[in-house]
Amino acid sequence: MSPPLSDDSKKPARIELNDQLSLYEQKVVEGCTIDFQNPKFRLIMRDPSMASADSKNSLYGGSDKKSSDPAASGIFEITDVMDSWKDTDLRNEFNKRLAAASTSQAALHSNFLTEEDRLMFRDEEMEPKKELWKYPNLADRAEIIIKREDVGQAAIKYICADCGEEVRLKKNDEVRCRQCGYRIVYKKRTTAACQYLAR
Question: By percentage, how much of the chain surpasses pLDDT 90?
Fold first, then answer.
């Protein structure tokens, strides 16, 4: 906390606030600055597509052996997570951990998270530009599930009519912008040269 500067002091006094006392009792007045720092926490990111049969058994009680290789088990513990992080920060940290844990370059590149892969928390897709502190019940050791893009289905690119962001939709996807939630999208204009025969 930084009270306003007085004539006789050049630097504001910094004190640590007591949780048991009110702000009035601690002489916090108008013009004071309060710096809040939330402690860093850990998240568990689980990728079911990476898990081998042995590690799946250990996860669900089938075997007592736990895989020490996170790339084989598909479970990564992301430490030092800050509540100001967004979806992209989690993806970058996952890719760093994957690069550090993987031994095979081919497996490494096939398992990197892409923009099409979705991060799920409590069966809801995490929004790309939403800070982690805005998710209720996202606390220390919460589990984030990675849902990989189904490469069998082709996604078609659309443009959101409200915010203008690119939206990729597959055959059975709900028509909704993942950025703003708007439900009207326009098909993206092709960049390929088109030639038509007119009569």
Answer: 11
Please give the CATH number for the structural domain made up of 156-187: 2.20.28.30
CATH architecture label of 41-147: Roll (3.10)
Q: Would you state the pLDDT for residue 62?
A: 41
Residues 6+ apart with CB under 8 A from 39: none
Q: How far apart are the first and last CA of the chain?
A: 77
Q: What is the DSSP string of the chain?
A: -BPPP-TT-SS----PPPTTS-TTTTT--TT-B----PPPEEEEEE-TTT--HHHHHHHTTS-S---S-HHHHTEEEEEEE-TT--HHHHHHHHHHHHHHH---HHHHHHHS--TTSEEEETTEEPPTT--GGGSTT--TTEEEEEE---TTSPPEEEEETTT--EEEE-TT--S--TTT----EEEPPP-S-------
pLDDT tens for each residue of 131-186: 998 888 888 889 999 988 766 667 788 999 999 988 888 888 889 888 888 999 99
CATH 3.10.20.90 range(s) for the chain read 41-147
